[in-house]
Design brief:
Layout: H1 2-5, H2 14-22, E1 32-37, E2 40-47, E3 55-58, H3 71-78, E4 83-86, H4 92-95, H5 113-126, E5 132-137, H6 141-150, E6 155-159, H7 170-183, H8 190-216, H9 224-237, E7 253-259, H10 264-281, E8 287-290, H11 297-300, H12 302-314
């Protein structure tokens, strides 16, 4: 029982994000493909109306990114906003873009949040995006944190950011830390056993979730044999993350969009992170709490969410 509980802290948005799957349209979404390198592709959707205006770079949650199945993206098109909405290369939508005969990159290399940030950076560069505004969603605060380190992106908007990988299950996180510390007492084999233990826990979790994901999103069936290991890699990439421990780059403005109906423990951590950011950068009014919104704000209140993003685009 304890082992099963270990993963719930990191998989912050799995259950809530599945609600987006449930409300997806039946029609297939035609996503574009961007090649980072052999075996590493990004599925994305874009809408560039005016190349001279700022473009929203919409990062995904842990399950997938936003696309035309989601009301938020359909509204963004109607509002004529510039945007690129992507799925990480480890997401099923992107795995579907790997040509037959190519080995998925995650099979031959380890992924980290920096790896994911690099592929986002490559996409922005490859598409020649002018004035990109990074917009994270829950899990992808791990990636926006890496992008902030580069100093290349003057504005990053954090939507319901994940603050700690185990924030939904601190007790489980403590158990994980105990066992990893125990394994690491052996300087030679400890790191191996620690990594194996954590990855095996995530593997069991995603194996249990795979049937419901396939049922909600049957288009992923062709890559179902890759999905558990890919999601495990995605989870492991963020293991140990703590948003509050970063050194905030004064050259990067961060703005936080939080949900009024967010889980109390998460909202408390988010507000703490906002306070630390404001103290470190001497900035004020760095957040907004959105009424009637929980953790997946683009799904809960898409029109309100897009109006907030539109205000940044128009004043950037």
């Amino acid at each position: 029982m304890k082992k099963k509980s270990l993963i719930s802290g990191l998989i912050l948005s799995v259950i809530t994000f599945l609600s987006i799957f449930a409300h997806a349209e039946d029609e297939a979404v035609k996503l574009k493909s961007f090649k980072v390198k052999n075996g590493q592709y990004i599925a994305y959707e874009s809408n560039i109306v005016d190349k001279e205006r700022a473009t929203l770079i919409l990062l995904p949650g842990i399950n997938r990114g936003l696309d035309s199945r989601d009301e938020a993206i359909r509204l963004a098109r109607k509002m004529k906003l510039n945007f690129v909405s992507l799925h990480f290369s480890l997401h099923p939508e992107s795995l579907l873009k790997i040509p037959a005969g190519e080995t998925p990159a995650f099979k031959i290399q380890s992924y980290s949040s920096a790896t994911l940030a690099n592929e986002v950076d490559a996409l922005i560069t490859g598409l020649n995006i002018y004035k990109p505004i990074i917009v994270s969603l829950s899990y992808s605060s791990t990636v926006s944190t890496e992008l902030a380190k580069t100093g290349k992106y003057p504005l990053i908007i954090e939507t319901a950011p994940m603050i700690r990988f185990d924030e939904a299950d601190p007790q489980g996180g403590a158990v994980t830390e105990f066992w990893t510390s125990f394994f690491n007492l052996n300087p030679f084999l400890g790191p191996f056993f620690s990594s194996y233990f954590i990855k095996n826990t995530y593997t069991q979790y995603w194996s249990s979730k795979l049937p419901s994901i396939l049922e909600s999103y049957p288009e992923t069936a062709p890559v179902k044999s890759l999905m558990v290991s890919a999601y495990t890699e995605l989870s492991y990439a963020a293991h140990g993350f703590d948003f509050r421990k970063q050194k905030f780059n004064e050259n990067t403005v961060r703005f936080f969009i939080l949900g009024e109906q967010e889980l109390e423990a998460r909202l408390k951590l988010q507000e703490e992170a906002v306070g630390l950011y404001q103290k470190a950068t001497a900035r004020t009014n760095a957040s907004v709490i959105v009424p009637h919104a929980g953790h997946i704000i683009p799904s809960d209140v898409p029109e309100t969410y897009l109006q907030i993003l539109k205000a940044f685009v128009e004043n950037y």
